[in-house]
Amino acid sequence: MDVTGAGAPIVAVVGVVGTLLSALLTQRAAERGRRREQERAERARARVREAEELRTCCVALNTACRQYLAALTDQLHALPRTEDPRAVRRRLTEARDLHRDAYAKAQLRLPDPVLALAGEVTRALGTLYGRLRRLDDGVPRPGDSPAAAQGEIDALWERLRELRRGMRADLGASGVFRPVLSEPEPHRRRPRPGVSRASSGC
């Protein structure tokens, strides 16, 4: 019996099967490579989206804090005036609501060190808001005065600068952030009456 002749078909089949398996394995390896590349690209896109969302959150909070403090400053300057203060009060309410929404979103995104400072700023803004409302309503508590409110405003502008530096550091836009969570700095000189701090650099 011719073994060589009989084994030829087997060899051919094995060769064909080997070729098919090799092609299949190559295809699967290529698919795995494509999947890994797609996963890497998706992770990179997710990181970019997350960074952009965090940046948007920081910008919104910074803007809201500045507008809230500017509205509080306007409210202080409106105290001695006799004309209708409703427009100033309305702007203050709108700024307060805007800040509340921005801070609520920031609570879900900011890292703990920056969030701690943002919380301190928010509490200080709320304290100042209460003082100015009592002065505006004519029911001040002991210690409530325009001078005390102005001192708080001055200290809060400094706090906003510190918050901004913290957010920039977290976004990689500046150096190392070292939060300062101590008491506000001593009051600075009160600006001339009628001069708003809304344009102050923060």
Distance between the termini: 98 Å
Q: Beta-strand level of the residues, as a percent range?
A: under 5%
**Helicity, as a percent range:** over 70%
Order of helices and strands: HHHH
Please mark out the parts with pLDDT under 50 across 5 or more consecutive residues, or reply none. Answer: 175-202
Task: Supply the helix-strand structural class.
Answer: mainly alpha
Shape: rod-shaped
Please name the defining characteristics of this protein:
mainly alpha
Give structural notes.
It contains four helices and no strands. The protein has helices at residues 3-78, 86-106, 112-137, 146-170. With 202 residues, it is mostly helical.
Concise summary:
By secondary structure, this protein is mainly α. The chain has four helices and no strands.
Helices, strands, pairings?
Blueprint: H1 3-78, H2 86-106, H3 112-137, H4 146-170
Helix pairs in contact: 1-2, 1-3, 1-4, 3-4
